[in-house]
Design goal:
alpha+beta; D-amino Acid Aminotransferase, Chain A, domain 1; Helix Hairpins; 38% helix; binds 2-(butylsulfanyl)adenosine; 5 domains; 697 residues; 20% strand; 7-stranded antiparallel β-sheet; 5-stranded mixed β-sheet; OB fold (Dihydrolipoamide Acetyltransferase, E2P); elongated
Length: 697
């Protein structure tokens, strides 16, 4: 049996053979993680897990220096840059930082520096946040920005000059005179939490993949081929150092940072100079305390020896400077088990999946829920109940599931099936084409949406009930007095108890109650378009409500049309709905879905028992096309097809999509085909676009 070492075998007990095998495994593993992190922006392990692998690699190499491999992670930095951008060779390599995880590590670092330099007294160090973004090197020649390059493998990065030029924080020209001919400013490009959330919302709405965290989205935003996309992402930049300098304008780290600041960059406002280890640790704790409120991700504090001549003397060891160290915060990522997946229903009916987690501490906060964004995200990550997942908490942002630890998947775990009914009210939930979000269609009766729907129902452009604003709706709903629209109209007669309860409400005396009932009474008659608008059907605003009302004319025709349209795209009724000028498929589907839901129809019936619906003020009946059935075909040049349809309907015409014996007029533009032929066959009058305009005025 081969002596395969367990990763838990203490380093001092490894045989040489075992050490060699493990170094090989670590080289491959860390290389793989580097590639995922640097090139794909899709790490699959937490920073802490990654750090632990490197730590073990270093420890084994320290014990068996003769076994250090050429491909060892200690011998290189990062991974080769992603393809697609021009390569840039860094004049001065971009290296990385050694890590400290405890106060003792920091004290040891300071002692190491003193020992190396043979100092008797503690030297000064700067301390500043370690920004969790991506490093960038900006090269200025004679004060002009010539190149912006990513770190890449430290030796060679990607040329993203056009993209970095779109960042407000990056000057195209350095401020001041008498500048060194060559100035390379280095720092971190990052995305704020606000912008990250906005971007992911846009991505989800457009059915594009959402980013796992601000760092990945900053990297993704910077690696765009089209700089205008980078510009729209609102990236930020903090300068923290420099690369090649043809002249050194200062003698200390802090002096250099002041100089860079004066050249027009942002340097981190939390940067401090410290004269003792205690002072360094105090900065660390201060920054850690402010971390959640900074609005951007940081993952530690970087200490740098202040005197530059001493930095030079200390130099570098393999991939990191001896004069600096990153004091990391405890990881804000963790792994835990998914106990269940809950579907939450938002005020607008959106179904959002939430992972119910075995509680776990992430960066000092107990987390038991994490968002899974939407249906596609669950499918993409293949998250199943029972899975062990990696979760991440960034600042105050809702924790999210990064991915599944597949090795830990229980055999019994089954792919998650997203529900197609609303978990709150049982109505069917639909997903529109091109939408990432599935929504409950039970608008009128779904408790999750009711308050929002009621608020809309009584709003100014709908039923416009004075004295029944958002606050009152909320309160009445909470007290069980008004649960659905019909309840508004039965409130008074329902019972005296309600009346007493109302009068007892603070600031809601007898007069207010009387006024409210009077206002409700006044709205028992309502025009059809206002009723349709008040129902709060998705995509049906005031304009579309008017189009519908005008087309069907009265309540009965409207309801008949809607019930029949629910039978699907093949039905004539759906076609008719779809053909209404200005309506179109998305709206037609949303309306049909609404009426397909029995619970909505029942709630509407209850409402209609209470109110009287006025037919829509008929479209003009004095126009030459009133009452006529019109078909548009071919290309229109002076208006869009939708405009033409809407105009015809305003004039009282009925617009149809197909020509039959019943058609009165066909308006044919260039390219008209079979419909024109049909018109000729049935002897229907044909007009050109200009003739139509002349007729319609
Ligand atoms: S100083 C020789 N200061 O951390 C390297 N780095 O692990 C000197 N970083 O690639 C780096 N904030 O992208 C420095 N305030 C800061 C930083 C910072 C973030 C990143 C940087 C670097 C990585 C090192």
């Amino acid at each position: 049996m081969a002596t395969r070492p367990s990763p838990l075998t203490p380093v001092d007990r490894l045989t040489e053979e075992q050490a060699a095998a493990e170094l090989k495994r670590l080289a491959r593993l860390i290389g793989e993680h580097d590639r995922r992190y640097y090139q794909e922006d899709a790490p699959t392990v937490t920073d802490a897990e990654y750090d632990a692998l490197r730590q073990r690699n270093n420890e084994i190499e320290a014990r068996f220096p003769e076994l250090i491999r050429k491909d060892s992670p200690s011998q290189r930095v990062g991974a080769a840059p992603a393809r697609g951008f021009k390569k840039v060779r860094h004049a001065v390599p971009m290296l990385s930082l050694d890590n400290a995880f405890s106060d003792e590590d920091v004290a040891e670092f300071a002692e190491r520096v003193m020992r190396f330099l043979k100092l008797a007294d503690m030297p000064a160090f700067t301390a500043e946040p370690k920004i969790d973004g991506l490093s960038m090197s900006l090269r200025y020649e004679n004060g002009e920005l010539v190149t912006g390059a990513t770190r890449g493998d430290g030796e060679e990065g990607e040329d993203v000059t056009a993209n970095v030029k779109t960042l407000d924080d990056i000057p195209h020209k350095l401020k001041g005179r008498g500048l060194p001919e060559i100035v390379e400013v280095r720092g971190e490009v990052y995305m704020t939490h606000d912008n990250f959330l906005k971007l992911n919302k846009r991505q989800a709405e457009a059915d594009e993949p959402v980013y796992a965290n601000p760092r990945n989205s900053a990297a993704g935003s910077l690696r765009q081929k089209d700089p205008s996309i980078t510009a729209s992402r609102n990236l930020k930049f903090f300068a923290y150092g420099w690369g090649e300098m043809s002249d050194m304008p200062a003698e200390t780290q802090s002096g250099m940072m002041e100089w860079i600041d004066a050249r027009g960059f942002r340097i981190n406002p939390l940067l401090k100079t410290c004269k003792s280890v205690e002072a360094m640790l105090k900065v660390y704790r201060d920054i850690e305390e402010r971390r959640a409120k900074l609005g951007y991700d940081i993952d530690g504090v970087v200490y740098k020896l202040d005197r530059l001549d001493w930095q030079t003397r200390l130099g570098f060891i393999s991939r990191s400077p001896r004069w600096a160290i990153a004091h990391k915060f405890p990881a804000e990522k963790a792994t835990t088990v998914v106990n269940g997946i809950d579907i939450q229903v938002g005020r607008t009916g959106a179904l959002t999946p939430v992972a119910k987690l075995e509680p776990v501490t992430v960066g000092g906060v107990v987390v038991s829920n994490a968002t899974l964004h939407n249906e596609d995200e669950i499918a993409r990550k293949d998250v199943r109940i029972g899975d062990t997942v990696t979760i991440q908490r960034a600042g105050d942002v809702i924790p999210q599931v990064l991915g599944v630890v597949l090795e830990k998947r229980p055999k019994s775990a089954k792919p998650y099936k997203f529900p197609d009914t609303c978990p709150v009210c049982g109505s069917h939930a639909v997903r529109e084409e091109g939408e990432a979000v599935r929504r409950c269609t039970g608008g009128l009766i779904c408790p999750a949406q009711q308050v929002e729907r009621l608020r809309h129902f009584v709003s100014r452009d709908a039923f416009d009930i004075e004295g029944l604003g958002e606050k009152q709706v909320q309160a009445f709903y909470a007290e069980g007095l008004i649960m659905e629209p019909a309840d508004i109209f039965t409130l008074e007669q329902r019972n005296r108890r309600a009346r007493r309860k109302l009068e007892e409400r603070e600031g809601y005396g007898e007069t207010s109650v009387r006024n409210l009932f009077a206002a409700i009474e006044q709205r028992r008659r309502i025009p059809l378009n206002k009723l349709i608008y008040a129902l709060g059907i998705r995509h049906v605003g005031e304009g579309n409500a008017k189009l519908l009302a005008r087309h069907y004319g009265d309540l009965d025709a409207f309801l008949d049309g809607m019930m029949a349209a629910g039978k699907g795209h093949a039905s004539e009724a759906w076609q008719e709905l779809n053909d209404i000028g200005g309506i179109g498929e998305v709206v037609a589907d949303a309306v049909a879905e609404f009426f397909k839901e029995k619970k909505n129809r029942e709630a509407l019936d209850r409402l209609l028992d209470e109110i009287e619906v006025e037919p829509m003020e008929q479209a003009r009946s004095d126009s030459p096309v009133a009452g006529k059935t019109v078909v548009f075909t071919g290309a229109l040049e002076k208006m869009t097809r939708n405009e033409a349809k809407a105009q015809a309907e305003r004039l009282g015409a009925k617009v149809s999509g197909s020509v039959s014996k019943k058609t009165d007029l066909v308006v044919a533009g260039p390219g008209a085909g079979s419909k024109l032929a049909d018109a000729q066959k049935f002897g229907v009058k044909v007009l050109s676009e200009d003739e139509w305009i002349a007729l319609a005025g």
